[in-house]
Amino acid sequence: MLQHFVDNIELWDLARLSPIIDEAVRKLRNAAGSNANPFQLLGGQALVALYDCLFIPNLMDKHYLFGERFREAFLGVQVNNKHMRVADVVPAFTAFLFSDYEELRTWAIKSFDKLPGNKVVTAEDYELWLSNYVERAVNKAAFTTEEEERAVFWSGCNILMTGLNKDTMVKYICGSNYDIFRMAVQHLQGNSRHLQLILRLFKTLLEKMIFDFWDAVGSMPAVVCKPKKLHPIV
What we know:
Elements lengths: L1 H29 L7 H16 L3 H6 L1 H13 L15 H6 L4 H12 L9 H21 L3 H17 L2 H8 L6 H9 L6 H15 L1 H7 L17
C-alpha cells in the first residue's frame, strides 16, 4: 500500500514537472548563442521546477528521458560560470556528488563549498536528505571493477566528509552498513590506484574526529603496510 502511494506521488511529480522542464529546454535551445541571462530567460516557474527536482533525484534515475531533459535545462542555466545556488541541504547534494555525469558532480562540489556561512550538514539533514544516496554509492563502489567509478566514489567521499560535522559522522557513518571508515581502511591494504584520495580522506577524518577516529576503526584488524609494497606517492 505504501509503495503504491509513493509510486503515485512520483507519477504526479513527473506529470507536473515534465511540461515545465520541456519548455525550459525549448527556451534555452532557442536562445543558444545569445547573451540572454538564462535565469531571467526561464523565469520563476521553471527555476522552482528545477529546484523541486533537486529533492527527487530518483525521478531522473527512473525516467531516463525526463532525466536527460532535466540535465539539459539544469546545466543550461549554469553556462559561463553561473551556478544555481541553494541555501539548504537537498538530496541532490549526494545523488549528484556520486553521479556518472561530471557536470552534476561539479555542481555538487560547488554546492557543498557554497553553503551559507559556516553551515555544515547536521545529523538531521544527513538522515533526512542524504543518507540513502550515500548508501547507494557505497554499495556501488563495493562491487564495481571500474577504476573511474572508484575514483568518483573516493573523490565524492572527500567532499562529503568536509561538509559533515563530527556528530553526524559518529552517528551515521561509523559502524553503519555503509561504513566509509572501514572501507577506506580495507583499501589501504591493497595497491589502490586511488591511494592519494584515500589518504586525503584519512586526513580529513583525523582532523574532524581526532581521537574518536581510532575508536571508530579500533575494532578492525591492524593494517600492516610493508615498505616495499607502498604506493610510490607515500
